[in-house]
Every structure is written in C-alpha cells, then in structure tokens.
Design brief:
With 251 residues, the protein is of the alpha+beta class. The chain has 2 domains: 4-144; 163-250, no CATH class. It has helices at residues 16-25, 69-76, 118-127, 133-139, 147-188, 193-200, 205-216, 219-222, 227-250; strands at residues 4-14, 30-37, 41-49, 52-60, 65-68, 82-89. A 6-stranded antiparallel β-sheet has the order 1-6-2-3-4-5.
Length: 251
Amino acid sequence: MVVKDRPVAIGRRGNFVEISGELSQSGFTGVVEVSYRLDEISRARAVFINGKMVDVRVNKLISKTELTGDEALNELLRVGKCVADIYTIDKSSSTIPENETNIEVPSIELHATPWQNEEDCVEKVESCLEVSREEILRKYKIKEPSEEEIDAIIKKAVEDELEGLDIEVFEEFERLKEELKSLSRKYLGKLSKKVEESIDRTSFPDELMDLAAEIGNSKSLRIFIPKEKLEKLAEEMGELIKLRSVERINT
C-alpha cells in the first residue's frame, strides 16, 4: 500500500495526459488524485514510481463502480479538464513494489536523474517540459480535426468549464462531510460509525440538515448518549452546514 505524504500541488488544473506526462518526464515518485466529470463525477488515484505509473484506479461516485489498470487509464485519457492534487509518498509507511508494472502514458522518454529531496521534487515538477502535441497525435493515431469538429470542440470546452464548477462544488461538499464526521467522532466516540456512514450516503446539503435533525432526536442514540449532548451535536452540525453554504455563496 502506498501512503501519500506532503502535497506538491493542490488544485492543479489541466488534462491527465499533460499532468502525467510532466510527472513521467521528471522521474516523479508520488501519488496523484484527480477529480473530473465525464459520464459522472469521478475520482482517480495514480501512483508513480521514478516516473513510471505503476497503479491507477478510478472510482465513479454515483454508480459506485471502480475501474483499474488499462480500463482506468483509457478513461482518464478522454478527460478534457480535471483538477489534480499531487503528493509525495510517505516511504516509511508505504510498500513500494520492487518490480513495478509500468502503465504506459503518452510522454516523451527522458533519462531523468532521481530526486535527492523534497525541495528538488517540487522544483522538478514545476520546471519539467511540456508534452509534445505531435507526439501524442502520432502515438494515438489521432487525426487533425475539421472545421466542423473544431466548432464542436469549442462548444464542448464551454460545457466542460461549467462542469468544472460542478467538480468544485462536489469537492467542497466532500470536505464538509469530513468536517461533520470529525464533529461526530468528537461527541459520539466509537458510536459515531453509523452516523459517519449516513453522512457518506448524502448527496446534498439539505440531506445533511435533515440528518443533523434526526441525530438530535435519535432515540437509539439516547440509550448511550445524553439527550443534551445529542442536541448540541445536531446544533453544531447545522451551524457548520449553514456556514459552509454562506461561504460558497460569497465566493
């Protein structure tokens, strides 16, 4: 298992071909987490060892399906826009395969020297060369688009820009759920597991508000937790949900 460590870049925008190509060229060792939307909002996790992608997985958040290996990579190559978080690896807590499988991504073959420390890591990610457009077109036998196709691409680019907003909203909502789960653990301790599962099943802020009210009135939880404590938890959850909603409106 590979455990991510220090962030190198958070909220990096681009497409997966460009980002993975840069990391491959620079000999990067670390984890890349990608949020995007094709048929549905999805999150991907790719592991790089010395510039080689050794593992990639895609989780589709609505249908709850998972893609791995070439199937996951083929989907990511179709992503026009994505948001990526890039991390180094916690080598003390990670099991890094000695004979890793190289999942080939479109990039130019370079003989990069290993990074000596995390400062070099950040510098090389920021300064690596751009992927050659002609290299990608030739490698994947992609034809130059016609004028009609260019018009369609422009139209889709506008739609993708709107979908990018959906990704931002989704990521903010996921952060809110993590905050609520932390609050639940603070008040309920080990009994918070069921509440955390209920939080994970929600898709909209209104559902979280309803859940907070249910927790405050839960008869089953009152067997173990004082009524006043549950009501306090429900109140703080409601205030946090409203606060994050206001922050979203004001940004």
